[in-house]
Amino acid sequence: MQLFDSLSVYEQLKHTTLDDETCLRLSEILRDSQTQQLELLTTKLEFLATKKDIEVLRAETKKDIEMLRAETKKDIEILRAETQKNIADAKNEIIKWVVGLIATQTALIAGMLTAAVTIILKMIK
Predict the structure, then answer these.
(1) What's the whole-number average pLDDT of the chain?
(2) pLDDT at position 69
(3) pTM for the whole thing?
(4) CB neighbours (10 Å) of residue 23?
């Protein structure tokens, strides 16, 4: 299918008062003009396809963002639970150390008191 028949235009222009050279040149100008318009239309159609592609990408991006948001929220909850467990473990470890230190200090004080009482009793006898 031919979009522009320059020979037909040339033939039609020949029936006017124009000379052959002018008729030929006018038909070429009309053909070039139509070619430019067709190229412009093609470019616009490609742009519209690109615009649709952008809309599809936008929707996919929104979906990806929502998925990442959900994954991030889940990761934060896991980290929060692990942190709370680590804090609880640290508290338990501190309590064990404090109880151990208190027991050791009590034993030392008891030993010192026993030694002091023994010394005092030996001095009294």
Answers:
(1) 88
(2) 97
(3) 0.47
(4) 18
Number of domains forming the structure of the chain: 1
78 is a domain residue = yes
The 8-class DSSP code of residue 5 comes to -
Phi then psi for residue 4, to 5 deg, are: -135, 125
Confidence of residue 1 (pLDDT cuts 50, 70, 90): very low
Q: Which residues, at least 6 apart from 19, have a Cβ–Cβ distance to it below 8 Å?
A: none
What stretches of 1-125 show up as alpha helix (H) in DSSP? 6-14, 20-124
Tell me the pLDDT band of 17, cut-offs 50, 70 and 90.
confident
Domain with 77, as residue range(s), is 6-124
Give the type of residue at 42.
T
Is 91 within a domain? yes
